[in-house]
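User: Last request for today: this protein with UFG, please.
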Amino acid sequence: MNILVTGGAGFIGSHTCVELLQNGYEVIILDNYYNSSPDAVKAIEKITGKSVKTYETDMLDKDGVEQVFAENNIDAVIHFAGLKAVGESVQKPMFYYHTNLEGTINIIEAMERHQVKKFVFSSSATVYGMNNPSPYVEGMPLSATNPYGWTKLMIEQMLCDACVAHPDWHVALLRYFNPIGAHASGLIGEKPNGIPNNLMPYITMVAAGKLDHLNIFGGDYDTPDGTGVRDYIHVCDLAVGHIKALDKLDQIQGARAFNLGTGVGYSVLDIVHAFEKANNLKIPYEITDRRPGDLPSYFADTTRAYQELGFKTQHSLEDMCRSSWNFVKHLYQQ
Ligand code: UFG
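Assistant: Here's the final one, the structure of the complex with UFG:
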């Protein structure tokens, strides 16, 4: 089976490409390397010993997208490409709407032209908005609080509508919780880009001595230790979730949402302490003000992904912390 992976050189995309190749799928990557690099493709090839056909193409380039579909007999698309920084999306909303929505429309229209009927979408737990209690269940009402979140929600809606128009399409909407960790080889992972916004890239930069301490955003939440609680999932588990979804796509009628999380919430302090223990390092931190827009606590209900996809996470928090540092440590040794 030939799988087109948009954004295949990115953090989650690259781990999913490895998993696909190791499960006998052929992979075609479309990536403009906006937030990634061809090195990730080389690393995917090194890990798997297989070669990957790659197009340096922007999904906003309609002709370029058409060329990828015309030159390959694509059976399914896994769509990761898109902008993902929450804060930046508030500053540049049109950039986010234009890129994420228009890019996805170009992919969907190419699928229509080439009769590709299977699609796996990289969605986010952010579509549960601010008002649902945890654990989040797929059938809960959805909303968004920033342009990035709205693009995820709007794309989910676009795909539901596409499935009404095309009753023979099979679409999985995978709602990720907080992916961290890296491949055991240390060759692919999340590259800190400037000053990171997300917790684990920030911690690894502190560990590397590039930043002097971690700011913990809020110590007075109504959580066991006062710091924010999230459902952290190892990126290699997340990658497996995509294979499980692909394998079951035939049985999915229309568009169906699945949470990909562990179902367990950890606080920021839990992560800091687990990271220190796993890597025998100290992470200096300060508790500062809450970050606007952050929720105190949320985590996934994993029942549907388990029952319908047979998806169950395997990696521990210790694994997530050790592999995250293993990847970043390699970067600074080069
Ligand atoms: N945090 C800190 N200090 C930091 C960074 C984060 O204390 O320097 C805390 C946050 O306040 C939060 C937790 O660490 O409690 C996790 O924060 P992240 O920024 O790593 O992740 P978020 O849960 O805020 O965001 C994630 C994804 C987004 C997605 C969002 C909502 O990164 O893409 O979940 O689902 F939109």
